[in-house]
Automatic annotation (TrEMBL):
Gene3D superfamilies reported in the protein's UniProt record: YVTN repeat-like/Quinoprotein amine dehydrogenase
Endpoints of the signal sequence: 1-23
SUPFAM superfamilies xrefs: C-terminal (heme d1) domain of cytochrome cd1-nitrite reductase (SSF51004)
PANTHER family: DIHYDRO-HEME D1 DEHYDROGENASE, PROTEIN NIRF
Keywords, in A-Z order: Signal
InterPro entries in alphabetical order: Haem_d1_sf (IPR011048), Host-pathogen_enzymatic-act (IPR051200), WD40/YVTN_repeat-like_dom_sf (IPR015943)
Origin: domain of life: Bacteria
Stretches that traverse the bilayer: none
Listed name of the protein: YncE family protein
Amino acid sequence: MKLLLMTFAIGLLAMAMPQTLLASSCTAPSISTTVDLPAAPFQAIASPDDCWLFVSMAISENRGAVAVLRNQDGIVKLDHRVELKGAGFGEALTHDGALLVVTTDNGIAVLDVGKLERNDSDALLGTLSSDAHAGSVYAAVSLDDRRLFVSEEYARNISVWDLDKARQKEFGASALIGHIPTATAPVGLALSPDGHWLFATSETMPPTMHMPADCKAEGPNGHPHAQGLLLRIDADKALSDPVHAVVAATPAGCNPVRVALSPSGKTVWITARGDDALLRLQTDELQAGTHDIHVSKFPIGPSPIGVAVRPDGAQVWVAISDRFSKGGGGRLAGFTNIDSVTPTSVLSAPAPGFPREVTFLRDGHTLIATLFTAKQVTLIPTSR
């Protein structure tokens, strides 16, 4: 009788759990692997079981797709793709593995992960109606999976959305909670491990701050400009009073574009693209009213963009894009001893073709990088 009851209970539990959480974990590639894609990839994110990779792609200005890559016994191949109504940029996966959010130049797409894996025709649940001119670029999901934060590069703010309404297929204006004001060109977002804080980068301070133009021009059409900022945002206050949710800010070099946190939440890493450098600071120093904040600066190569801390906290990896050079000599750089005065380089892998974003498989050791102009995704086992 006890065995019967136990079997019945397990069956009920299985029916209640999302399909993505039931599958056994898939083996990561044992060697470096590169997958060709039909369009330029922006970001890649793994399913909770490492059996799938979802890659946002830009096909044209108003057309994009999610490339769905399947991992079978450590062999990763393109399985299919799902069209989007706009070029695909930043991604975020809910912690329950049920929803994939993709920012586009035509709003914020919300997709059902199970249907996405099965290539169902109705995988796209709907689009959150962001202003097409806002420049939605990066996304982060709250730990309870109820709220979504999206940096809007052209609108100079971070929009806050109600994901519960998206699950109920309410994609109208009522799903928008409000906007967090930022400086010029907000891009990178990272939530603290406890979910209480949201860290965001803005590429430059606004002219109204009257700061000196210390940063050199980027690219042929650029011009000298002021440093950018790292913002510390109260994620809970952003739900009730987003206009006043920024609690602290500090200069963060020239064109800070991405941000990543250590697993402890005590250290924040920033890529300062215009400084060709990786920055490090302690989150406890970034408090309201604090002015004496120590920022360590490590020159690492031309135009770094993506940054990711390995889940065990042992390494930090950077996509050195070299995006403004005619040579296109991008590479991926990994560092260990990351709390020391000067981190130690552990690997420098060539990555020609504009390496843009880096993250890790859920195995905690396999690096994923998108190569934008090469139209590829590469997976690299890192040292254990």
